[in-house]
Request: fold
Amino acid sequence: MSEIINNEKEIKKRNRIRVYLIIVSIVSIILILPTIPFILAAFFMFSAPLTHDSIIQSISVASLIFFPFIVFGSLIPSWVLFASKKHFLSILFASIPILDAFIYGLTMAYKMILCNGSFDC
Reply:
């Protein structure tokens, strides 16, 4: 009887992880589309004076440009790890695009708050 309960818990855990992976995959892939114009315009962020020395600006541009590569480079291994029953690693890999978007959001908030929206801070 305890084996059945443990098996049911594993199935529920696996289903929750599957739902998480599906949601993160869909949201990340949908977020790629709006980033395309920003990626094309990202290099103009360095056209303002003194922006080539800004570390925050460089982090912001890098997180924006590499976002599509991070999405596909992390979601594919997360599904492979999920299929091989390495659930914790699959959750970590699936969370990498969320971390990248969070870093981009933090850098943009930093520029908006501390630099008054200017790119030369």
